Amino acid sequence: MPKLPMKAISILSISSLVFFISLPTNAMHPINHGFQGAKPNCTYSIEIETTCAQSAETTDHVSVRFSDSKGDLIIVKHLKNPKLLYAPKGGSKRGGYGGFGRCAIDMFEASGPCMSSRVCSLYVKKVGSDDWRPGWVKVLHRQDGGQVPVSYVFYFRTFVPENVWYGFDYCHSKGGFVPHVVSFDD
Known about the structure:
Layout: H1 6-22, E1 41-50, E2 61-68, E3 73-76, E4 83-86, E5 105-113, E6 119-127, E7 134-143, E8 146-149, E9 154-155, E10 165-169, E11 180-182
Antiparallel strand pairs: 1-5, 1-7, 2-3, 2-6, 4-5, 6-10, 7-8, 7-9, 10-11
């Protein structure tokens, strides 16, 4: 490798320094290459009531997906770390509670793109062999320290079948608000 004279190295160093100093200050920060119009994230609370029917509770893996009429979609692949909102007298309030207790109301946190309109489609998926009978599910948006309802209340009141998405699509339904099985590509 040829040796550069000291004068050439000094000129290169000075011109590099001048170039670096002349850069705008934001040129040294990473650029977000996300597409323009990306929606900000919002935090949601998902409240789920499990009915008081015999064997209504579950320890199975439960997922939820919900969307609005504009196609904004949030999928929570595993509802975990519940906050127990209500348990009947003598119900489970001890540590290690995994949610979905009989006669209980649990709240789970999720985040995703802010919905443009009201949540009108909601499906749950239970992986496992327990019976589970949710009473109702609703989605709330956490905003300014409070909770704002952003969904209809989805009334199940029936046992959820295993390993399928089961729920409601009020966005595109023409009546008959009965829970049903649907297949999604996910």
